[in-house]
């Protein structure tokens, strides 16, 4: 039986652990995890220096193939939100009601994808104002689950974040 | 005769040139420039590695003493917007109608200070959505002057940005 | 009810993910994880640059309090194996039959603690000869469980490694 | 009407601000600024880490096209002075009586171009002896103007340096 | 008359001085020194950052041409010991009774080449257990000469190490 | 019998090998080598990143105790030549006719100490003009010996440089 697929959207300067803990954790949970950036197979570097490689370009992604989406924090979201294809993927996965996990600064990407209106979520306090201006109710909790949207604040929340995201996938 | 004073609000990881070109340019234009960060005299480092020192803590600043305010881009604005005192200073200087210059990501700070509603401005395209969600009209021009607010997009706009900011101070 | 405690022994230049994936994973699994280095609260840096802090000095550790031990790879093991206290802790936890997890170069520490004779284990291929000379049977598998000893080869094995280690703790 | 052209000669490890403040300042003053290094379009890095690109190779430069020349400090001058073409350009622009600006360690280049005999100038104190041995009178002032030669000591002198250089161009 | 040839086997992250002091010292002593890595002419970097280039790939080496072999410490040995060709070269030079110099962590390479059984040697204390498990008698001295094997512990031992290695070559 | 003493004058950013090859080589030749910087015991870093420590401040040095002096290249000489005490030490050792070794950019220090007039020497080609302007005859050879002055051009000359310097000490 083929494994279900999880998509990670990333770029240079993702917060290293917010990218790679979910990456390995989803594999451990039995998923086939695909890391997409602007160019397939490109060498990337985390904000603190950890090197990794994307598997594929997001241009070549069919969002319908995935059962869930994860976006790391750090400075990668500041880049990700500039791409039309990234925003289209986020919107399509959200419209399908599939779980989307955002942590730390990842909310910038869902803001630009236009899916935050009327949602309840958390994030790094740094982007609280951007989250609220985008129409969402911001709360300061380690993990917030609102329908298909799972959000957390920082690396220290990774355990709660992953527990909630896996639960969302299984429902 | 004493020189008029310009305030720069900054932190680690400001875009080096967006911080230091205005710094030296204001001195050249005859102003007394004060660089404030969270702690006075603290060594800071630009996003690309240029070291500099803040003159004073913003806690010890009286906004009324300054005739204008400049905020650099880079990642410093992501930190600056978290401080109540920073937001209070920005608001006070704006309420007094004194020139405020924002470049690149600096708009995050004016968003959090709550002064962007109904304004016309530019910024790095990365934060266009945050700017619009904060209630401002975003345009893609090298420099935009709307009342006391002077805004630019990136280092390549520094010459037009400084020309407009100096003109705003002189009016 | 108090959580059971897991000990991580580390130093500068641990392989970042081999240290921090297990760290957050054990928290997610419900354990209280204590990271010990030569000095409590010391700032450390991973081999690729991720910063972290140890909770406590291993000099202040009572091995009897812990239900399991994890040692990361990278260059930290080359330092860890030089400390008598580190070797004593490893030996005591092994003598008690509690799960010990070693990944990549971490085998150097268990070699120096004198607990590898007659064991079956894996590691980075780089230290295969040291493992065999220490009296163990080396196999090239993603994870090897031999009694209380759980071993893996590299970051790509982290999912299998953690699954096996958690199972060992629960038995 | 076409803009007048200013030439900047540089290499890796120029003092970042001594290169880039004059670069943007000349554009602000209405000039077309051309940055030349050993190879056109080459990526270069400042002494403190700021990245920039040269526009053209100095091999392809016609010195007669420029109305002025600027040379930054840092370690770039130690490289620049080794090139015959660099020295020829400096000499030709000096012979034409056009303004030449040198700051910090840039005097090494004008020394090697053989144009310092009988001049009055300043520089970083570090190369005072080299300046004097080359036949010039060294003074410790923020900016010295001697005919077409404008010289300064360090980044803190940038405002006075640019004011004097622009004045020299306009005369 | 042609010079006698010395081989150095290295890789990235050799301890800079343990690689380059012997390199220049052997040239000073009148030898033709050949630095071999996995690829000829490849740019390499020492553990502390010193750049150097290998002369040739070890794949193209005929061990019979050399009168002696030197292996630096640092992290390069952890890589070197994984290559069959490296181990074959070490073994061939040892079988011919020609001097082999190992310093710091270089013993890992001779362990993997299988030539340490019954030898007396020193090394960084970090790998003492690996050395003993490989069958050698480990002593804590600045330099140990046992037949054709010359060993030292650390950079501070370089003077004694080179004196002994040159003596071994001359005998 | 007490060893004769050699002085090395250095600062941050010395060319790593030009500092440390002579340091270990002089120890190997039987001398007691003292490394002096602006502050005793201060941690310093070479131009390429090798860390080292000075033994003593040059303020506490009695030049009469030393039989010879070595100055490395890199950027350290640009700093060294600014100190009166450094220049006084160089002058005193030169007046006593004791061997002085300069390599690469080290000539800047002897220029500022005022001892180059009428001498024959070499250096990195970068400072040829400064050397000649200081009154010395510059030649392009791997090592030049003129009375007590031994000079070389670059790291590749270290073997010839040290051979000549040791010979000068023994005469």
UniProtKB/TrEMBL annotation, chains A, B, C, D, E, F:
Coiled coil: none annotated. It holds the Pfam family DJ-1_PfpI. Residues 5-167 form the DJ-1/PfpI domain. GO terms for biological process: proteolysis. GO terms for molecular function: peptidase activity. The keyword Hydrolase applies. The keyword Protease applies. InterPro entries: C56_PfpI-like, Class_I_gatase-like, DJ-1/PfpI. Keywords: Hydrolase, Protease. Belongs to the peptidase C56 family. This is Protease I.
């Amino acid at each position: 039986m083929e494994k279900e697929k999880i998509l990670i959207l990333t770029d240079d300067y993702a917060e290293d652990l917010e990218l790679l803990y979910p990456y390995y954790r989803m594999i451990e949970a039995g998923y086939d995890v695909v890391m997409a950036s602007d160019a397939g197979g490109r060498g990337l570097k985390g904000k603190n220096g950890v090197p990794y490689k994307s598997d594929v370009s997001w241009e070549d992604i069919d969002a319908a193939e995935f059962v869930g989406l994860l976006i790391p924090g750090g400075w990668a979201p500041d880049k990700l939100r500039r791409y039309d294809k990234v925003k289209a993927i986020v919107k399509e996965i959200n419209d399908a009601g599939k779980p989307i996990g955002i942590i730390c600064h990842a909310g910038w990407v869902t803001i630009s994808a236009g899916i935050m209106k009327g949602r309840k979520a958390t994030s790094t306090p740094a982007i609280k104002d951007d989250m609220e201006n985008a129409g969402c109710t911001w709360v300061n909790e380690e993990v917030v689950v609102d329908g298909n949207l799972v959000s957390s604040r920082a690396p220290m929340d990774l355990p709660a974040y992953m527990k909630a995201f896996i639960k969302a996938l299984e429902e």
